[in-house]
Amino acid sequence: MERENGPDAGIDHIVVSLLVAADENNVIGKDNKLPWHLPNDLKYFKNQTWGMPILMGRKTFDSIGKPLQGRKSIVITRNKEWKHPDVDMVHSTKEAIAKAKEYGAKEIFVIGGAEIFNSSFDKAQRIYLTRVHHQFEGDVYFPALDANDWVLTHNRFCHADEKNAWSHTFQVWERKHS
């Protein structure tokens, strides 16, 4: 579960990263589901989050249906009665970050949904964004990135192919520090 190297690699500091796929209009979902199926993005998601704590809302957890193998799931919910034997339940982003620090992790991945992205956005230092090059109908959106606050540090384009119906770009954005 640890990815720790260097002088900042202690439990005193943890990177809050948002990991999201969004279309050209920042649509991230419709009817509590992804509006697309991109095996490349699923593989990317698995590779980025493997061995790390992931934070999601209860609705996102319910849509996935189970804890994801190889990751420590933290579910944020307002429902004090909600329980699942294989996840840690918290009631705030602050609690989730503290829980990830208890694991000794240097990074926590926020994976959705929209309400959790919005509540974590100001705390995020990094965004792993898969930009899907299409416009979908949706009812859930990711916040727009302001170029005054974020810098693109990684940008890898992938053409549509027989397994991935839409072209997409894997991007990493880092928050600018003043």
From TrEMBL:
Organism's domain of life? Answer: Bacteria
What is the catalytic activity of this protein?
Answer: (6S)-5,6,7,8-tetrahydrofolate + NADP(+) = 7,8-dihydrofolate + NADPH + H(+)
Q: Which UniProt keywords apply?
A: NADP, One-carbon metabolism, Oxidoreductase
Q: Which pathway does this polypeptide act in?
A: Cofactor biosynthesis; tetrahydrofolate biosynthesis; 5,6,7,8-tetrahydrofolate from 7,8-dihydrofolate: step 1/1
Protein EC: 1.5.1.3
**A cellular component term, taken from the record's GO annotations:** cytosol
Q: Looking at its record, which EC class is this enzyme?
A: oxidoreductase
A single GO molecular function, which one? NADP+ binding
InterPro entries named in the record: DHFR (IPR012259), DHFR-like_dom_sf (IPR024072), DHFR_CS (IPR017925), DHFR_dom (IPR001796)
Biological process annotations from GO: dihydrofolate metabolic process; folic acid metabolic process; one-carbon metabolic process; tetrahydrofolate biosynthetic process
Q: Where is the DHFR domain?
A: 15-175
Keyword set includes Cell division: no
Kindly indicate whether the keyword S-adenosyl-L-methionine belongs to this entry: no
What does the similarity note say? Answer: Belongs to the dihydrofolate reductase family.
Q: What is this protein for, i.e. what is its function?
A: Key enzyme in folate metabolism. Catalyzes an essential reaction for de novo glycine and purine synthesis, and for DNA precursor synthesis.
Q: What protein name applies here? A: Dihydrofolate reductase
> What is the organism of origin for this protein?
Flavisolibacter ginsengisoli DSM 18119
* Lineage summary: Bacteria, Pseudomonadati, Bacteroidota, Chitinophagia, Chitinophagales
